[in-house]
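note to self — DONT lose this again. spent like an hour looking for the file last time. sequence + predicted structure for the chain T wanted, 233 res
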Amino acid sequence: MTRSSVWGFTSALLIAARAFAQDGGTIEGAVTAGGVPLRDCNVSAYRIDAAQQKAVQTIVTRTSDLGRYALRPVVPSSYVMIVTCSDERVYQGMKQVAATGVTTVDISLDDPFAGKWKLNVSKSALGPYTQTREETREYSHVGDTTVVTYSRLLSGNHAPTTDNYQFRCDGAEYGPPGRVVTCRFRSATAVEGYQKLPALSYYVRSIQGNVMTIKTFADADHKKPTATLVYER
C-alpha cells in the first residue's frame, strides 16, 4: 500500500469515527427508590425499529453505588428501557431519544414500605419480642429521610408505647448513641442493616404484595436467625 493510500485509508477511518461520535449519544441518569440510590441494578435499552416493530440494538449496563448509569452509544430512536434489581423487574418504559448528545432519564421508584403496617402475631416467630401483643408501624418520608413511627403494646401494660426514629437508607449510621440504625437497599423490595436497641441486632426487611417481613439475626452474615416478624397492610 502506497503512502497516499495509507493516508487515504486513515483519513476515511477518522471521518467515520467523527461521524459515529456525532451520531452516537448517551442515555444517562439515576435509579432511586424513595429518594435513595439503587446500586448494582441492570439497566437495559432496546432500540426499536419503527418499520420492523422489533428491537434492533440492545445496550446493557449496571448502576453504580450512587445509583447512576450511562448507556452508550445511542442514536435518535425509540427505546424500551428495563431496570432489573436482584432479578426483579422494577421498571419498564418507552423513552424517545430525539437528538444526539446526552438524554437524561432519571427513574424514581416509590418506597415499597411506605404506609401503615400491623403486626400479625399468629404468623410471626417473635423470638426475643415475645412480650409484644400488638404493634403497628408507619413508614413515611421527609425528603430522602425515612421516618418510622410505631405503637407497641407489651404484656402486662394497659396502654401502648409510641415512638419514632429517622434514618436514610444509604448504609450510614443514624440515631443517638445506643440507638443507632442503618439501612441499605439490597433490591427494590428489600433492605438490610443493623440496629442497637439496645443490643446489636441485624435485620432484613422485605415486602411481597401486602405483606412485609422483618427477619432479625444475631450475626452480620444472617446465619443465626432470632425472629421473623410478619406485618400486613
